[in-house]
Amino acid sequence: MYLADSAPMGESLVKTEEGRTTATAAPMADEAPAPRRGGVPARLRSLRAPRRPRLWFEILLIAVSYWLYSLVRNAVPEQRAAALRNADWIWSAEKAMGIAFEETVNRSVNSVTWLIVSMNYYYATLHFVVTIGVLVWLFRRNPGRYAATRLVLFATTGVALLGYYLYPLAPPRLMNGGNFIDTVLLHQTWGSMASGNFKNMSNQYAAMPSMHIGWSLWCGLTVFALASAPWARLLGLLYPTLTLVVIVATANHFWLDAVGGIACLSFGYAVSYAWYGSLPHHLPKLVPAGRSRLGALSPGAATARSGSPRL
Protein backbone atom coordinates (compact mmCIF):
# COMPACT_ATOMS: atom_id res chain seq x y z
CA MET A 1 0.00 0.00 0.00
CA TYR A 2 1.32 3.42 -0.96
CA LEU A 3 0.45 6.72 0.72
CA ALA A 4 1.66 9.89 -0.95
CA ASP A 5 1.45 13.20 0.92
CA SER A 6 0.78 16.16 -1.28
CA ALA A 7 3.86 18.32 -1.64
CA PRO A 8 5.04 21.17 -3.82
CA MET A 9 6.86 20.33 -6.97
CA GLY A 10 10.52 19.49 -6.37
CA GLU A 11 10.04 18.39 -2.74
CA SER A 12 10.16 14.79 -1.50
CA LEU A 13 7.14 12.47 -1.61
CA VAL A 14 6.68 10.07 1.31
CA LYS A 15 6.05 6.42 0.36
CA THR A 16 4.92 3.92 2.98
CA GLU A 17 5.14 0.21 2.27
CA GLU A 18 4.49 -2.43 4.94
CA GLY A 19 5.60 -0.21 7.80
CA ARG A 20 8.66 1.14 6.08
CA THR A 21 8.89 4.79 5.20
CA THR A 22 11.13 6.05 2.42
CA ALA A 23 11.48 9.37 0.64
CA THR A 24 11.70 9.79 -3.08
CA ALA A 25 12.19 12.93 -5.13
CA ALA A 26 9.09 14.32 -6.76
CA PRO A 27 9.21 14.77 -10.53
CA MET A 28 9.94 18.29 -11.75
CA ALA A 29 7.36 19.87 -13.98
CA ASP A 30 8.56 21.35 -17.26
CA GLU A 31 12.14 20.42 -16.46
CA ALA A 32 14.40 21.87 -19.20
CA PRO A 33 16.36 19.29 -21.14
CA ALA A 34 20.12 19.42 -20.92
CA PRO A 35 21.66 21.44 -23.76
CA ARG A 36 23.25 19.46 -26.53
CA ARG A 37 27.00 19.85 -26.54
CA GLY A 38 27.24 19.41 -30.27
CA GLY A 39 24.46 21.83 -31.20
CA VAL A 40 24.82 24.88 -33.40
CA PRO A 41 24.82 27.39 -30.48
CA ALA A 42 27.68 25.53 -28.81
CA ARG A 43 29.69 25.52 -32.02
CA LEU A 44 29.00 29.21 -32.55
CA ARG A 45 30.16 30.00 -29.02
CA SER A 46 33.30 27.99 -29.60
CA LEU A 47 34.10 29.96 -32.74
CA ARG A 48 33.67 33.24 -30.84
CA ALA A 49 35.73 32.13 -27.83
CA PRO A 50 39.36 33.37 -27.83
CA ARG A 51 41.87 30.56 -28.34
CA ARG A 52 45.61 30.30 -28.69
CA PRO A 53 46.69 31.26 -32.24
CA ARG A 54 48.76 28.78 -34.23
CA LEU A 55 51.90 30.21 -35.79
CA TRP A 56 51.82 28.30 -39.08
CA PHE A 57 48.16 29.15 -39.64
CA GLU A 58 48.68 32.85 -38.92
CA ILE A 59 51.64 33.12 -41.31
CA LEU A 60 49.67 31.40 -44.04
CA LEU A 61 46.53 33.45 -43.39
CA ILE A 62 48.34 36.80 -43.45
CA ALA A 63 50.34 35.91 -46.57
CA VAL A 64 47.28 34.73 -48.50
CA SER A 65 45.16 37.64 -47.29
CA TYR A 66 47.69 40.25 -48.34
CA TRP A 67 48.13 38.54 -51.71
CA LEU A 68 44.36 38.63 -52.26
CA TYR A 69 44.19 42.24 -51.09
CA SER A 70 46.89 43.30 -53.57
CA LEU A 71 45.27 41.26 -56.34
CA VAL A 72 41.82 42.75 -55.83
CA ARG A 73 43.10 46.29 -55.27
CA ASN A 74 45.12 46.25 -58.46
CA ALA A 75 42.31 44.56 -60.40
CA VAL A 76 39.91 47.43 -59.65
CA PRO A 77 39.43 49.46 -62.86
CA GLU A 78 41.61 52.55 -62.68
CA GLN A 79 38.92 54.82 -64.18
CA ARG A 80 41.38 57.64 -64.72
CA ALA A 81 38.82 60.26 -65.81
CA ALA A 82 36.57 59.62 -62.81
CA ALA A 83 39.57 59.54 -60.45
CA LEU A 84 40.77 62.92 -61.66
CA ARG A 85 37.28 64.42 -61.39
CA ASN A 86 37.00 63.14 -57.83
CA ALA A 87 40.42 64.60 -56.99
CA ASP A 88 39.30 68.01 -58.26
CA TRP A 89 36.14 67.74 -56.15
CA ILE A 90 38.10 66.78 -53.01
CA TRP A 91 40.54 69.64 -53.53
CA SER A 92 37.69 72.12 -54.02
CA ALA A 93 35.87 70.81 -50.94
CA GLU A 94 38.99 71.17 -48.80
CA LYS A 95 39.49 74.72 -50.04
CA ALA A 96 35.90 75.53 -49.12
CA MET A 97 36.48 74.12 -45.62
CA GLY A 98 39.79 75.93 -45.23
CA ILE A 99 41.87 72.77 -44.79
CA ALA A 100 43.61 72.66 -48.17
CA PHE A 101 47.13 72.61 -46.71
CA GLU A 102 48.52 69.70 -48.72
CA GLU A 103 50.36 71.73 -51.36
CA THR A 104 52.04 73.96 -48.76
CA VAL A 105 53.20 70.95 -46.72
CA ASN A 106 54.36 69.11 -49.83
CA ARG A 107 56.51 71.97 -51.12
CA SER A 108 57.84 72.99 -47.69
CA VAL A 109 59.05 69.50 -46.74
CA ASN A 110 60.42 68.88 -50.23
CA SER A 111 62.78 71.83 -49.76
CA VAL A 112 64.63 69.82 -47.09
CA THR A 113 66.13 66.97 -49.09
CA TRP A 114 67.15 64.65 -46.25
CA LEU A 115 63.72 65.02 -44.65
CA ILE A 116 61.65 64.30 -47.72
CA VAL A 117 63.87 61.37 -48.73
CA SER A 118 63.41 59.92 -45.24
CA MET A 119 59.66 60.34 -45.58
CA ASN A 120 59.71 58.59 -48.96
CA TYR A 121 61.33 55.53 -47.38
CA TYR A 122 59.00 55.80 -44.39
CA TYR A 123 56.00 55.71 -46.74
CA ALA A 124 57.37 52.72 -48.67
CA THR A 125 58.44 50.50 -45.77
CA LEU A 126 57.01 51.21 -42.31
CA HIS A 127 53.47 50.61 -43.53
CA PHE A 128 54.32 46.91 -43.66
CA VAL A 129 57.12 46.60 -41.10
CA VAL A 130 55.27 48.16 -38.17
CA THR A 131 52.00 46.38 -38.90
CA ILE A 132 53.71 42.98 -39.01
CA GLY A 133 55.69 43.88 -35.89
CA VAL A 134 52.50 44.66 -33.94
CA LEU A 135 50.93 41.39 -35.10
CA VAL A 136 53.99 39.45 -33.88
CA TRP A 137 53.93 41.30 -30.55
CA LEU A 138 50.23 40.50 -30.12
CA PHE A 139 50.84 36.85 -30.96
CA ARG A 140 53.57 36.52 -28.34
CA ARG A 141 52.36 38.77 -25.53
CA ASN A 142 48.56 38.94 -25.90
CA PRO A 143 47.40 35.68 -27.48
CA GLY A 144 43.90 35.97 -26.02
CA ARG A 145 43.39 39.30 -27.79
CA TYR A 146 45.17 38.40 -31.00
CA ALA A 147 42.26 37.03 -33.05
CA ALA A 148 39.90 39.89 -32.20
CA THR A 149 42.52 42.53 -32.98
CA ARG A 150 43.47 40.77 -36.21
CA LEU A 151 39.79 40.73 -37.20
CA VAL A 152 39.73 44.53 -36.83
CA LEU A 153 42.63 44.79 -39.28
CA PHE A 154 41.12 42.35 -41.78
CA ALA A 155 37.66 43.96 -41.72
CA THR A 156 39.23 47.41 -42.12
CA THR A 157 41.18 46.28 -45.16
CA GLY A 158 38.21 44.45 -46.65
CA VAL A 159 35.90 47.46 -46.58
CA ALA A 160 38.71 49.63 -48.01
CA LEU A 161 38.66 47.48 -51.15
CA LEU A 162 35.02 48.44 -51.60
CA GLY A 163 36.01 52.09 -51.35
CA TYR A 164 38.65 51.69 -54.07
CA TYR A 165 36.04 50.21 -56.38
CA LEU A 166 33.24 52.68 -55.70
CA TYR A 167 35.29 55.86 -55.45
CA PRO A 168 38.42 55.96 -57.62
CA LEU A 169 40.58 58.89 -56.60
CA ALA A 170 43.80 60.30 -58.00
CA PRO A 171 46.43 61.30 -55.44
CA PRO A 172 47.45 64.98 -55.37
CA ARG A 173 50.71 64.27 -57.27
CA LEU A 174 48.68 63.11 -60.30
CA MET A 175 46.16 65.95 -60.43
CA ASN A 176 45.75 67.81 -63.70
CA GLY A 177 47.20 71.29 -63.50
CA GLY A 178 48.26 70.81 -59.89
CA ASN A 179 51.43 72.21 -58.38
CA PHE A 180 52.19 69.16 -56.27
CA ILE A 181 55.61 67.50 -56.39
CA ASP A 182 55.94 63.74 -56.83
CA THR A 183 58.74 63.41 -54.30
CA VAL A 184 59.58 59.79 -55.13
CA LEU A 185 59.93 60.58 -58.81
CA LEU A 186 61.93 63.74 -58.16
CA HIS A 187 64.41 62.24 -55.71
CA GLN A 188 64.52 58.76 -57.29
CA THR A 189 64.02 57.00 -53.99
CA TRP A 190 63.34 53.28 -53.93
CA GLY A 191 60.39 51.31 -52.78
CA SER A 192 57.16 53.17 -53.48
CA MET A 193 54.57 51.25 -55.47
CA ALA A 194 52.99 54.57 -56.42
CA SER A 195 55.74 56.13 -58.50
CA GLY A 196 58.84 55.41 -60.51
CA ASN A 197 59.58 51.92 -61.80
CA PHE A 198 56.78 50.32 -59.77
CA LYS A 199 53.90 52.53 -60.88
CA ASN A 200 52.63 50.01 -63.44
CA MET A 201 52.37 47.31 -60.74
CA SER A 202 49.89 49.18 -58.55
CA ASN A 203 46.58 50.92 -59.08
CA GLN A 204 47.46 54.60 -59.19
CA TYR A 205 43.90 55.71 -58.48
CA ALA A 206 43.19 53.95 -55.20
CA ALA A 207 43.85 56.82 -52.81
CA MET A 208 40.53 56.78 -50.95
CA PRO A 209 40.55 55.52 -48.24
CA SER A 210 44.14 55.74 -47.04
CA MET A 211 45.21 52.39 -45.63
CA HIS A 212 48.45 53.99 -44.50
CA ILE A 213 46.24 55.81 -42.00
CA GLY A 214 43.93 52.86 -41.36
CA TRP A 215 46.80 50.47 -40.59
CA SER A 216 48.94 52.96 -38.69
CA LEU A 217 46.03 54.00 -36.49
CA TRP A 218 45.25 50.31 -35.86
CA CYS A 219 48.88 49.85 -34.75
CA GLY A 220 48.84 52.97 -32.62
CA LEU A 221 45.59 52.22 -30.82
CA THR A 222 46.59 48.60 -30.22
CA VAL A 223 49.93 49.55 -28.70
CA PHE A 224 48.40 52.38 -26.66
CA ALA A 225 45.69 50.11 -25.26
CA LEU A 226 47.83 47.06 -24.47
CA ALA A 227 51.41 48.20 -23.82
CA SER A 228 52.46 48.77 -20.24
CA ALA A 229 55.55 50.94 -20.84
CA PRO A 230 54.71 54.67 -21.05
CA TRP A 231 57.23 55.25 -23.84
CA ALA A 232 55.60 52.50 -25.95
CA ARG A 233 52.17 54.00 -25.46
CA LEU A 234 53.51 57.41 -26.47
CA LEU A 235 55.01 55.93 -29.65
CA GLY A 236 51.65 54.33 -30.34
CA LEU A 237 50.08 57.78 -30.45
CA LEU A 238 52.88 59.40 -32.42
CA TYR A 239 53.03 56.78 -35.17
CA PRO A 240 49.68 57.53 -36.91
CA THR A 241 50.24 61.26 -36.38
CA LEU A 242 53.59 61.15 -38.18
CA THR A 243 52.09 58.90 -40.87
CA LEU A 244 49.48 61.55 -41.59
CA VAL A 245 52.22 64.14 -42.13
CA VAL A 246 54.13 61.74 -44.40
CA ILE A 247 51.23 60.85 -46.70
CA VAL A 248 50.50 64.54 -47.21
CA ALA A 249 54.12 65.68 -47.56
CA THR A 250 54.79 63.05 -50.25
CA ALA A 251 51.61 64.10 -52.13
CA ASN A 252 50.19 60.58 -52.00
CA HIS A 253 46.98 61.51 -50.18
CA PHE A 254 44.62 64.32 -49.28
CA TRP A 255 43.66 65.00 -45.68
CA LEU A 256 40.21 63.59 -46.41
CA ASP A 257 41.72 60.27 -47.50
CA ALA A 258 42.80 59.93 -43.88
CA VAL A 259 39.19 60.47 -42.77
CA GLY A 260 38.22 57.60 -45.07
CA GLY A 261 40.87 55.41 -43.43
CA ILE A 262 39.52 56.26 -39.96
CA ALA A 263 35.99 55.39 -41.09
CA CYS A 264 37.18 51.99 -42.34
CA LEU A 265 38.95 51.33 -39.04
CA SER A 266 35.78 52.21 -37.14
CA PHE A 267 33.94 49.63 -39.24
CA GLY A 268 36.64 47.08 -38.41
CA TYR A 269 36.21 47.65 -34.68
CA ALA A 270 32.42 47.36 -35.05
CA VAL A 271 32.76 43.99 -36.77
CA SER A 272 35.12 42.68 -34.10
CA TYR A 273 32.84 43.92 -31.31
CA ALA A 274 29.80 42.30 -32.94
CA TRP A 275 31.59 38.95 -33.19
CA TYR A 276 33.37 38.80 -29.83
CA GLY A 277 30.96 40.92 -27.80
CA SER A 278 33.79 43.12 -26.54
CA LEU A 279 36.53 45.41 -27.71
CA PRO A 280 39.82 43.53 -28.18
CA HIS A 281 41.64 45.10 -25.25
CA HIS A 282 38.85 44.02 -22.85
CA LEU A 283 39.31 40.34 -23.67
CA PRO A 284 41.55 38.11 -21.49
CA LYS A 285 45.23 38.59 -22.20
CA LEU A 286 46.05 34.87 -22.02
CA VAL A 287 44.19 31.75 -23.12
CA PRO A 288 44.48 28.46 -21.20
CA ALA A 289 46.75 26.04 -23.04
CA GLY A 290 44.21 23.24 -22.63
CA ARG A 291 41.38 24.94 -24.53
CA SER A 292 40.00 22.55 -27.10
CA ARG A 293 38.61 23.40 -30.52
CA LEU A 294 35.10 23.50 -29.02
CA GLY A 295 36.18 26.17 -26.56
CA ALA A 296 36.08 23.94 -23.47
CA LEU A 297 38.97 23.08 -21.19
CA SER A 298 40.33 19.58 -21.20
CA PRO A 299 39.83 17.78 -17.86
CA GLY A 300 43.49 18.04 -16.94
CA ALA A 301 43.70 21.69 -17.80
CA ALA A 302 40.47 22.46 -15.94
CA THR A 303 41.79 20.70 -12.81
CA ALA A 304 45.10 22.53 -13.00
CA ARG A 305 43.42 25.85 -13.53
CA SER A 306 40.99 25.43 -10.65
CA GLY A 307 43.84 25.44 -8.17
CA SER A 308 45.77 28.32 -9.67
CA PRO A 309 45.11 32.06 -9.44
CA ARG A 310 43.57 33.84 -12.42
CA LEU A 311 46.06 35.66 -14.62
Q: Key terms for this structure?
A:
disordered C terminus; 2 strands; 311 residues
Sequence-ordered SSE layout with sheet pairings:
Elements: E1 12-17, E2 20-25, H1 40-48, H2 55-75, H3 80-97, H4 102-110, H5 113-141, H6 143-166, H7 183-187, H8 211-226, H9 230-249, H10 255-276, H11 299-306
Antiparallel strand pairs: 1-2
Structure explained in plain terms:
This protein is mainly alpha-helical and 311 residues long. 58% of the residues lie in helices and 4% in strands. The chain has helices at 40-48, 55-75, 80-97, 102-110, 113-141, 143-166, 183-187, 211-226, 230-249, 255-276, 299-306; strands spanning 12-17, 20-25. Helix 5 packs across helix 6, helix 5 packs across helix 9 and helix 6 runs antiparallel to helix 8. The radius of gyration is 29 Å and the shape is globular. The protein starts with 11 loop residues before the first strand and ends in a 5-residue tail after the last helix. The model is unreliable at 1-38 and 291-311 (pLDDT under 50).
